[in-house]
Amino acid sequence: MSLLELDDLSVTYTIEAGEVPAVRGVSLTLEAGAALGIAGESGSGKSTLAMALLRLLPRGARVGGRILLDGEDVLTMKWGRLRAVRWAQASIVFQGAQHGLNPVHRIGDQIAEPLLTHGLAGPEAARGRVAELLRQVGLPDWRARSYPHELSGGQRQRVMIAMALACSPRLIVADEPTTALDVMVQAQVLTLIKRLVAERGISLVMISHDLSVLADVCDRLAVMYAGRVVEHGPSREVYHAAAHPYSRALAAAFPTVGDPASRLAPKGLGGDPPDPMRLPGGCAFHPRCPVALEECSTLDVEPRPAGEGREAACVHVREKEQEAS
Ligand SMILES: Nc1ncnc2c1ncn2[C@@H]1O[C@H](COP(=O)(O)OP(=O)(O)OP(=O)(O)O)[C@@H](O)[C@H]1O
């Protein structure tokens, strides 16, 4: 059984102007100890998907499908069970650490909080565990007494990772964990994440618009466009020899890990992502696709096999297979 299984997941927000289909029919799996990267431009639905995994979506977001964590559906879990799962089984690291840290509480108290709340440690043991966690993320023990504003962005992100590790979860969801950091610090935090995943056998879902960062850390990649996964498969193949024209454009936009240009919108990819409330007919990518055929404006193909353990939702994939046979 996979540690995490998304089965036809969809998320729709309702706003005054109408319905926003932010995630549309996503099916993905993650094996225990593996790392899955989710890539896509701004607005493709990555954060919505990350929030859905731990049922952290705002009220009014409608969620369909199933999210099985160790066989249990997160979407139908009772509240008490969900609270326990959120820290002890799966935890989340947000972008830029701006959501996660409380400015008026010391770092050590914030890391200790889930341990105390879930009865995993008494005050004395929690202090020891905090010191250990700080060391694991490369910070000295005395930082436990600091307030968030006394730390740099990279140090705050390390604290967020320590918090996520506190209850020894099996899964960490990291939403753009290094985007707000400068290139050097970004590389250090990525190295830390890779080490923790490898050493502790933690499973990781990492979200980024930068395919090079994900390819560096993750075993498998899923590329999202307009709420759909358009390609998924082993990182090397998706990054170096993408089957979907959108993944190719995204890979070309971020050629190296930590490229400063990766903060910018993908270059070489003309136009803007579509407004989810006004998705074009057929394949949502067709108006920007350099290899679109006439049929792409009416035909939205399902993901199809594009090699070993790999799928892509593009008419050209079928053509390649037919040529090969
Ligand atoms: N609370 C909300 N209410 C209404 N629409 C929302 C809400 N949150 C996100 N959306 C919309 O859902 C779509 C997906 O947004 P989401 O934040 O998941 O994308 P993303 O790929 O994570 O983008 P970014 O990289 O900019 O964070 C966007 O069109 C966005 O405007």
TrEMBL record:
Coiled-coil parts of chain: none
Major localisation: membrane
Gene Ontology MF: a single term: ATP binding
Top-rank taxon: Bacteria
Record flagged with keyword Transcription regulation: no
Keywords carried by this UniProt record: ATP-binding, Cell membrane, Membrane, Nucleotide-binding, Transport
InterPro entries according to UniProt: AAA+_ATPase, ABC_Ni/Peptide_Import, ABC_transporter-like_ATP-bd, ABC_transporter-like_CS, Oligopep_ABC_C, P-loop_NTPase
Cell compartments where the protein resides: Cell membrane
Segments forming domain ABC transporter: 4-251
Matches recorded under CDD domains: ABC_NikE_OppD_transporters
Membrane topology field: Peripheral membrane protein
Family according to the record: Belongs to the ABC transporter superfamily.
Protein known as: ABC transporter ATP-binding protein
Native source organism of the sequence: Sphaerisporangium dianthi
